[in-house]
Amino acid sequence: MSLVSTYHGKHVLITGGLGFIGSSLAVKLVRLGAEVTLVDNLMPEHGANFFNVRSIKSRVTISLSDVRDENIMAYLVEDKDFVFHMAGQVSHVLSLSNPYPDLDINIRGTATVLEALRKYNPKGVFIYGGTRGQYGKASNPAKESDISQPTGIHEISHLAAEQIVSTYHRIHGIPAILTRMTNVYGPRAQMKHDKYCVVNWFIRKALTNDTIPLFSKGKIIRDFLYIDDCVNALLSLALTKTAYGEIFNIASGKPTSFLALTKTIVTKAKSGRFVFAPFTYERKAQEPGDFWADISKIRQYCSWQPKTTLSTGIKRTIKYYEKYHSHYF
Ligand SMILES: NC(=O)c1ccc[n+]([C@@H]2O[C@H](COP(=O)([O-])OP(=O)(O)OC[C@H]3O[C@@H](n4cnc5c(N)ncnc54)[C@H](O)[C@@H]3O)[C@@H](O)[C@H]2O)c1
What we know:
This protein is of the alpha/beta class and 329 residues long. The chain is built from twelve helices and 13 strands. The N and C termini lie far apart (40 Å).
């Protein structure tokens, strides 16, 4: 099934649409001929950035509003074929000092969008952007059927939201798909601070010829996914009817150490350096240990697979921020 023929003329709502993943989805969907509406409340310390959508500004509708607003959400979901829900409090570090945005936006905000769908558009396909953090300490490679043991409020809020989405699918028949995305990186991510989007933060450090601190001698393993692969996975899943009610890892499936990641970044940027550093309190408190994902389920359901190697993804990301850094940091 081609993405162009399927999304052409479709009405799509993207929450968190000015942020990293939301705006990247929007750019691709506009290219595919979809009628796209973005909703974003420009949350402080988050990734909302008008520069992210500069190339499609005249071809999208932007609603600067909050997903917790029942009236606005009722109006916005009404005629939509697809709703990609990417709005949220994103940082597990921020949730340590203030858990309320996670509880309020990630849980109540998700329920508000679903209630709007239930009342005004129960056939609209809902795609939830969850996180690999929901697994907590994982037995790698983590499978969707594994037990979740989240280590912090942020991850708990995503898990609770996921279960709310499941309930709306089961009880109210909303065609919903649940995703758990790994560490996504690439163009359009915020680079103002180090509270989330670690790969982009390391790239900023390298581009400004700074020192990148590596905990645990860089041995911790993660699964890093380039944004274009993430967008293609979300778009492919949304078209897969057998995926309704199911949970999917969206990841590269490849274990990579922070040391290997950082060496790639410093080599490609031709600047910056790294140093081994002790864990800070807030990082240690919620560190779940190594993580990489099993991606056989998404491969089986919609034939998606990641195409961008880490080296190519890092190279493309560096190129983007070398050109546009003044819009990000
Ligand atoms: N980036 C990653 O690596 C990653 C990995 C796993 C899961 N996720 C999840 O994906 C989603 C999107 O993340 P992102 O990286 O694009 O972050 P981002 O900060 O770039 O985008 C989030 C957007 O949501 C908006 N927002 C926040 N609260 C809102 C509200 N109440 N109403 C309307 N808009 C609101 C923000 O202003 C921001 O533009 C989040 O739920 C995040 O937890 C991201």
